[in-house]
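Agenda item 2: 5-phosphoarabinonic acid complex prediction
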Amino acid sequence: MNLTIDFTNLFQLMDMPDGITQNDLMDSVSLCDKANKIFSEKKSSEPLGFYDLPDKEVEHILEYVEKIKSKFDTMVVFGIGGSALGNKAVYSALKAQKTLKKLFVYDNVDPYFLDDIMKAINPEKTVFNVITKSGTTAETMASFMFVIDYLKKTFPKDYKDRLITTTDKEKGFLRKLIKDEGFQDFIVPDDVGGRFSVLTDVGLVSSAFVGIDIKAMLKGASDMRKHCDEKDLLKNPAMIIALSHILYKTKNISVMMPYSNPLYDLSDWYRQLWAESLGKRYDLQGDEVFCGQTPVQALGATDQHSQVQLYTEGPKDKIFTLIMVENYTKDFIIPEVYTDRQEVNYLCKKTFSQLLNAECIATEYALTQAGRPNMMIKFSEINEENIGAFIYLYEAATVYAGYMLNINPLDQPGVEAGKIATYALMDKEGFEKQKNEINQYLNKKKESGNILCLN
Ligand code: PA5
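Presented output:
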C-alpha cells in the first residue's frame, strides 16, 4: 500500500478567517476519544463487522471463480446502493491497469439501461449475480425476476449454473428462494451494513471473477487499518479526515475530485457512504439534529471547465479532497508537432499524465489561494492494495465522523422510508394504509393547480 495524504491545506490557508488549525484539532481530542471509545466497544461485532473483513478467508470465492472461469467471460451484477456501488468502483479503477473480464452493474430499474446491457452481452458466456442484503429490495427483486425468467427460457437445462445469489444467510425472501430452489449463493454478513460491504462476498465475488487480486485488496485494507487504529490523532488519517470535516462547521458540502477517470466511481462510492451514513435527523439520544454534509463528486481535469469557477469564487461552503495518481503504467507523449508555435509548443514531449497532474496541483493552488480548505490523496499507482486501503480509510473515517457527530452512521431510516413508499405504490400486500396516504397526497397536488401540462 502506498498512499500519501497531504492535509496541509486544511490548516494553513492564507486568507481564511474561518480556517481551523492543528491546535483546533488537538483541542477537539475529546471528540476523537469519544468516537474511539464507541468504535472500540462495538468493533468486530454488529454493526461494525467491516473492521474484521481484511482478515477474512476468501478461499470459497477463489474456488468458485476457478470453477466457472472457463465457462463465462462476463458477469452482470443486479443490485443497488451498497450492493452495487463498490463493485462498480473497484472494477472501474482496476480495469485501466489490467485486462479483466467484463462486468456490468445494473443498479437501477431503467428499462433502457437494462436493454443496453442485454444487448452488450453474449448470453452464452454471461453469469448473473443478484446481490441484496435484505433480499427484498424492489429494484433488485424485479431484476432477479427478470433474470430468472430469462435464464429459464433461454437455458432450460442449466439455468441454475448461470445464476449467483448474494444475500443474508438467514433473512429475506431471496434466502427463502435459495433454500427452495438451490441457487448458488454467497453471504452478506449480518454484522456489515450495505455500504460497508464491498470487502465481503458482495464486492469480492465480482472482483475475483473479473481477475482482480482480492487478497491484495484485503492486504491494502489491513495495512490501512493499522493507521486508522492509531491512538495519536495526528497519525490517524481516518480521524483527521473525520474531525476536519466536522470542525469546518460552515462547510456543508464535501467535494471529492479525483484527477483520474478510473477513480471517478470510487468517489461515487464515497458519495453514498458519506451521505447515507451521516445524513441523519436524530442523534443517539433521539433529539432532532438534521446533520450531514452533502458529498459531491467531481472529475479533474474535466470539471475544471465546469465546476471550478464555482469552487473558487462561489459560496465558501465547501471542503475539498483532490485525488492524484502519481505513476501511470500507460501514458501518451504529446508529439513534437507545431514546435515553432509558442501557443502550444510548451506541451511538446510532455506526457498526458504530466499535464493531468499539473492541473491537479494547479487546482489545489487555486483553491488554497481562494481560501478554500482542501486535502490531497496521492495514489502511488492504481493497484489492488491502494484501492483496498482507500476503501478501508473512508469506511473508518465515516464511522468516526458519525460518532463524533453523536449520530448512528450505520443505519438508514430515510432509505427505508422510500422503500416502504415504493411497496405501497406498487400495491404490495400489507402496505394499503401507506398507499391511501400517498394517494391523498397525490390528489392534493392535482388540486393545487400548480402543475402545468404543456403540449
Ligand atoms: O447501504 C445500505 O444499506 C443501502 O444503500 C443498501 O445497500 C441498499 O438500499 C440496497 O439494499 P439491499 O442490499 O438490501 O438490497
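Discussion summary: Residues 80-83, 132-134, 137, 140, 193-195, 276, 412, 415 surround 5-phosphoarabinonic acid (CB under 6 Å).
Owner for follow-up: CH.
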